[in-house]
Amino acid sequence: MKLKRSISIFSSLVILGIFSTPTFASEKEPNTKMPSIEEQLHDFQEFEESINNGDTKIYNDKEVDASLKSAPETLATSGTYPTRKGVILVTDGLRVDSLVGHAGIVTKKGQAIESFPDGGVQYNSAKWTTRYKKVWGVTTSGTSASQDAAAADWAVSKKGKPYNMNFFDIENTNKFYCSQLVYKAYKTKTGVNVNWLGGIVTPADIVNTTKTYTIYKFTK
């Protein structure tokens, strides 16, 4: 079960003489401010705890479409490091300014398309489990493997685009930060919105949204 961050609002008894009820963020309720580093770390912590206590399951990867079975790099790999084109990789082990974590999309075995401040959108062949202490592989609900591959191809088409330091500018298609690239690729090619709380799209959003499910986890 993927739990959303909730905010309890306490109204002053002196002014109003009443208690207000707790309010809960929804998928359609946009964040209008940058989530703090502590909030983002808490989102990752809650996600990890939900896996550890069994509320969030590790599922088998989706079946590969018949049209993709001739391409070895797209074969499903359940329970092992993801190599299927279109699987999303997420970690909490990187920080850029006030953005916590990192996200990318697998393009083939041993390669992902990612965006970094140094060089923008680029291929990276370094295995995530050698770079980070925690890694999760997720895939989108309701999409086929061919649709996921199309999202990966869209992200690849942005190779060479610069890094986007304006984390609020999530619809920009000329520059990208890591989780924004994932968000735009899937929204553009599949219609799936992986932005959990709206507004800035963080790596933690991608693992916490109900629009994705987990197929792989790694912890050192």
From TrEMBL:
Keywords: Hydrolase, Signal. The lineage of its organism: Bacteria, Bacillati, Bacillota, Bacilli, Bacillales. The keyword Chloroplast does not apply. Residues 1-25 form the signal peptide. GO terms for molecular function: hydrolase activity. Pfam families: Peptidase_C92 (PF05708). This is YiiX/YebB-like N1pC/P60 family cysteine hydrolase.
